[in-house]
Automatic annotation (TrEMBL):
Coiled coil: none
Known cofactor(s): Fe(2+)
A molecular function (GO) term: dioxygenase activity
Family: Belongs to the 2-oxoadipate dioxygenase/decarboxylase family.
Protein name per the record: 2-oxoadipate dioxygenase/decarboxylase
Presence of keyword Metal-binding: no
Domain of life the protein comes from: Bacteria
Species per Swiss-Prot/TrEMBL record: Streptomyces sulfonofaciens
E.C. code: 1.13.11.93
Keywords: Dioxygenase, Iron, Oxidoreductase
Amino acid sequence: MISQWRLRAAFARRLSAMYGREVPAYTTLVDVSREVNEDVLRDRGADAERLGSIGRVTAERHGAVRVGTPAELQQVARVFGALGMHPVGFYDLREAAASAVPVVSTAFRPVDGEELARNPFRVFTSLLTPADPRFFDPELRARLETFLAGRELFPPELLALADRAEAEGELPDDAAERFLQLAVAAFELSTQPIDRVWYETLEKVSAVAADIGGVRSTHVNHLTPRVLDIDELYRRMTARGIEMIDAIQGPPGGRGPAVLLRQTSFRALAEPRTMREPDGQVREGALRVRFGEVEARGIALTRAGRERYDTLLAGVDERLAHDPDADRPSVARTLWADLMPGTEHELAAQGLAYFTYRPAPERPRDGAHPPTALADLLATGWLRAEPIVYEDFLPRSAAGIFQSNLTDRGRRDDDQTATAYDSTWLSGALDRDVLDPYTLYDAQQRRSLEAAAEELGIAVPGTQGLAQRERATR
């Protein structure tokens, strides 16, 4: 029998091999990521594995797929459910993007700490929003919804096997092999001719809309390795002659512990696609829709930490509005030094980041009773704080990656009222709960505190005291 996590690991490996055949530059990206990780491990030693073992980091991938209807989203959730992956987080890229990106998204991933350690494969999954009148007028919406209703992305056999794997938590060898074959095939780039006029009609609204609703299949839009030094990777990829997007998305690098998520990519490459003309003739064409993304993950921030980060972004935007010629990374680094702590201890002390807490092996053994406040337990050596890796995404960064690989800004009528979407709506569309990432991180941190308190024989300390103590001593 093949368990869900082994299915997940096998699917990630096979998807990576398939995508490497379709987009050879992705293989170069993986190779350079591996080289950078090996160099960082050699230079930094154990510190390089502070946010995950080198084995996990090297194997780690996140994919991105796009679907057109709630029914298709439900089906893709069943496929990922077979792999032990759950929808986590709601991302509205319509509001995060300056260009026309008419999608809302979630990410399917494992949520249990042990499952994440075994294989943290995640898939950022976007849903087209034809009901939003800012992008689609009634006539185009009707045509688009009719087109989407007439296609099948996932064969019934795949969905039946997926349901069995999710219900039973495993599959027999033969069924597992069949499931993997069908699942990988469902995300391959189709060779079916594309209706050129229909595709270009949607492309005038948004290249993302055309990629979703202008074809009769779905495909992997990018597959992302994880790297320990994304700035070095950016330099090495550029040195190899691969055109990268203009900037690294996410927090500025270079000072203090890594937090949240930094991402970049090489630019979308022209891929040959066959196009069907109005007279029925099929001609060779090319589309630029897929690209190679890479990411560096840091520590998960609490809600307070995320508010601090959003304040930083707003400050950068404000300064650049007054001085458009300023260098954005330099401005961001300056503000970051003012707003964000420079050490893990300060992040914990101010309640800005998530950690797991464990009794320190070298804690006092002289019979003294440990203090009760978490800040004191850390300061006096009773507890160790280990950072919790950020497993999720940043809507503005995702939108920035999407925008950097679009041919133009598309079309958007902001005189129209936006159609409302939120996590509750998405849960209904999926017919399964969209989990709150903060709740997951809170629970992980809380469980560690409860276990540590039991071992030390004290009441469970509250994390809110950390921020209070830090303010009192400043």
